[in-house]
Amino acid sequence: MSIIKSAEDYVRKNLDKEVIEHTLRVRNYALKLAEEEGGDKEVVELAALLHDIGYMKGFRDHARSGVPIARDFLNKQGYDVMKAGKIINCIIKHDAKENPQTAEEKIIWDSDCLDRLGALGIIRIGPKFVKHDICKPEEVAEKLKAMFEAHAAKLHTETAKRFSKEFTGFQQKFFKELDKQLNIIDNNFDFFYKVKEV
Ligand SMILES: [Fe+2]
Ligand SMILES: [Fe+2]
Q1: Which of 10, 87, 132, 155 is the most buried (most CB within 10 A)?
Q2: First-last CA distance in the chain
Q3: Over the stretch 79-106, which tens digit does the pLDDT of each residue have?
Q4: Ligand nearest to the CA of 54
Q5: Does residue 198 register a pLDDT over 50?
């Protein structure tokens, strides 16, 4: 079995459905970015697959907690030590507060970020704001707008910046329409409160 297939199986076996789906989308973005930005494609793909493996230990500090898990997995596969080191650095540097340096690190950071933008960002992140009491339902749209702008401004690669422009256009239209509809229905935010019941 190829190392890529083994990594994908490992992720599917050990992570929750939501994180698996996010991971597979990050892999798709990462491969697209690698085509234009360069970098070692195998390192990029494995780093994308393993970047959130720390979720096995919970969300908090998952970039760091994923390091020993990924290292152990790659060691057991007999994977090249130099390349494994590059993958580990991608995992550490995917934390939003980190500053990625190499092409591979930038691609993983940007791919992870792209999955928080656009239509998917709205349906993935909006409900989480309410569910985890980060803001009130009536503040979700403003909070999302601010988050999208902040994240898009931090992208590192030209290819990801180009993708994010398409997302931004969509988001602007979405929020404009949302404002219009919320006014029509007298600012009824019940649909966001329903998230709390899930
Ligand atoms: Fe992450
Ligand atoms: Fe992620």
Answers
A1: 87
A2: 39
A3: 999 999 999 999 999 998 889 999 999 9
A4: 1
A5: no
Cα 30–32–36 angle (5° rounding)? Answer: 110
Q: Answer left, alpha or beta for residue 38, where phi above 0 means left and psi between -120 and 50 means alpha.
A: left
Arch. (CATH architecture) of 3-99? Orthogonal Bundle (1.10)
Residue-wise pLDDT for 101-148, tens only, equals 999 999 999 999 999 998 888 888 888 888 888 888 888 888 988 999
- Where exactly are the structural domains of the chain? 3-99, 118-197
Question: What pTM value is reported for the model?
Answer: 0.88
Q: How far is the CA of 51 from the centre of ligand 2 (A)?
A: 6
191 CA → ligand 1 middle, Å: 28
